[in-house]
């Protein structure tokens, strides 16, 4: 860009002039602070094709523009705003002074002049702008048509036949109607492009034939408000039946009707109108009036040929077009008038979508009243004042088109003319006196009204005005813009920024679009849908859903694809207790008789389902768990399959128009009937009764392969012989269940499932269920070139993040508890041009309204769990868990069909806990992590990765441990009945469970003693002979005795484990054990006042190891040696040392190499990898057993012998476990201390008096 090409409305000073407005310059442009409408303009000297716009702020300042408008045109007095997708004319600008923000335009601008209007800027600075454009020169051959002209391009031959065509040209006009292009052939082929109501309409036909019933005519409409006197680019690409119609970046793809693929045109192709009167296919069309350029037909430049012959060229002058846009809240235009005249004359043109708005206001002199001209709710104009004079000329004038208004009033009469049509005058005869005022206000009233004299309380007008005339004199807009003639506010001169927000129609499923100047509304009545854009269905997906909501049998409307494109339809629901049958009837329910058909000319028995199309019924079957249809074929010398392996004579067609050669009662994939499967056909040589070609037989049965249903056609081809006849009968489609809800996969690695490109159109809804134990992960992500969507999990938050052109946005649903609870949670997300919302489970919707003029057009390539794009976040946050019932815009995505276990995606919600390679031992709980599993040892007396590591202690003589079951705070309140009735942690009234392992060489000894507030107790001891165990209790009868040596030798391996469960012969501790003072566990027993029966075994005391001690849910040794942070109620006397009691594994566990921390292998069996240093050696050469390995083997053998000797000398190792019948359990044990501490002066065990 040259400095001379850049201009501006004003400048801040010489150092901020427009010459510094190029990208990466040393300064930038800033306007004068008093400039009401600042702009920066670029003159490209000739027409260019502009593809992108880039901006910067002023160098090394706080000055930058945050929002701006782009205008373009061929003349500096006529501008058109560039609207982005969604009819948004505001571009997002910069966030600092140095960064370059580039916007790629969704269709190129064809213009010589570009103007930038700042709308917002950094509040800490001022307007600062540096600008760059991306494009190339555009050479054009322009032709002008005055409405009476046309050109024709004659083919070299008499006709032209093509299977592919390309038509391109650009046009501009101020007319609503006009014929742009026309060509036709003698065989019924034609193509016509015309303007109708300022919309472009394409008519095309590839020909008709009397042999075919289908009609070839196709009509497609695109664009709106094309009468704006600015260039519009059209391109038509045809390939056989398929046509792409593109206008200013809006593309419509469609298929031509009919059966032909070639376009046959005769003699010539017309542009701008028709010359010959012999064109019978055209009813009268108004010729085009305006300009056309660069007309191409199949690479032939027709405009250049016309220019060479001097056709329709010469000096081309644009028609005068200087509109004013009213787009603000308090916009107005104040124009002076000639006062105190008895004749009022005002005229103007306007266009708008609004139903209300003030067009004109003026006060009469001498307090004679005022005049208001407003748009009412029905689009009428209403001049008022005095109140009794309220005419309503015009009707539905808010249609977006230009309307001419002329008002002439004198004393006692007024004439209002709308659009200068015959009969459009509205005359008023009423006695009133008129004296014109000094000011006329157009579009609104300035504030305050008491000073300005504009006393109207009507809403401001939003739209465009042009050709304003006051007192029969046109208003000079240039003087008005300079405020030399009048005043204005919030208006834009020399442009009309109206846009059609209902083209294309963003209301789905047939919803009606109603628009205003800056918004639109969808009317969803009688569509069966609801929501901001008529996107959500009002009906349930199947009869089973109605059953779950409590309905009974009857007719219901269902919508199998939800928010998808298929319409809802009515079915009969046979609702039973366990399931609901969905029944769809059709026109072939009764027998259809067929005669005279052959293989070459078969009978096509189309099945027309009631109230539904084939696609809608197929959607029902596709989402059902089971479907069936009864098919019966009766034959009278009419064959069915003909031969067992030859081509069949008759068949039926199912989903996707696929042929099927198996009949009722036979599974798919085999060419048989039910009798052929049961081997009881009338002729064993055939697989159907009818193939025997006898006088009368029948083949019937159920078709129940869901993926082939529904039946759409029955084709019969062997009834043309003498006395040959066939009848077929098809039962209704019956379905039940929902196979989409449990379409489930589990992600065990950072893998993904990729589905085909999904066009989200203008609305998108996503729903699915998830289940996980992970704290974070990406459920679904699409990362395109510009926009993206993502749904992810962050601990307690589910986040819906997206960018649809307005920057990064996100919605967050926060739960009071984490979602990583391994339970199913439902997620629903929706985004459209109005809003975005997110919901999880039954929590409230989180809603974010979209900015005005938003647009949604996402091509969704949704990987599940993670995305494959490099920009995505899945590589850092893979989802690990289960997903099911994923639906996008009503379409269920087949997760199970995409699952691949080798890539870490399994069918069904399965992890590693179902079949763990190493199970969790000793009451450990398996915790599913989906990529792996862990063992929860919180309820086990062991620890380690698989709860297999002993937690034990070595007791010196005189050492013991006391663990208080009842906390001190509850002991102080034990007298209260409310406390007495509460279950205590680790303490219940019905049963007890006790387990531990021990190793000792002393006898007798008390291993463990449990006391209560009463005289009840439990004691486990070794008797004097050292050969048996005993258990005693006050409330028990005879104490059970177990052979200690026998247990350790027979049932017990050397490793301490939970032992057997002795069953006391009496009621045990039972309900008599009530929480009175300080119940406790003592291991081993203290000396002092204990039961005399137990005291004799407590001398000289226990010396040895105890491990794995567990009483109900209380784990004393884990509380001592593995503290959790809370103090635990235990006391230690003597020196207690942690020890594993020389335990060995009970059995050899098969630990996989990847889970074994001591595994030293480097690869799989049979493979070898060379060491980097051994470059010359062969890594796969044979191995020789060296001397070092032999020595290692001998050392291991010696260690094993020593271990066996040690175990033999410490043979009093054993375990003991008691488990009485248990009705109530409480696994919430007391807290555990940080470090163990000792108490050398503990009180003796005291038993409560029997009286107490």
From TrEMBL:
Paired cysteines (S-S): 882-909
Domain F5/8 type C: 1-136
Region (Disordered): 1029-1084
Laminin G domain segment(s): 142-311, 322-496, 742-909
Sequence ranges of Low complexity compositional bias: 1066-1075
Superkingdom field: Eukaryota
Membrane-spanning segments: 1190-1207
Keywords, comma-separated and alphabetical: Cell adhesion, Cell junction, Disulfide bond, EGF-like domain, Membrane, Phosphoprotein, Repeat, Signal, Transmembrane, Transmembrane helix
PANTHER family for this protein: CONTACTIN-ASSOCIATED PROTEIN 1, PIKACHURIN-LIKE PROTEIN
Protein name, per record: Contactin associated protein 1
Source organism (scientific name): Gopherus evgoodei
Lineage: Eukaryota, Metazoa, Chordata, Craniata, Vertebrata
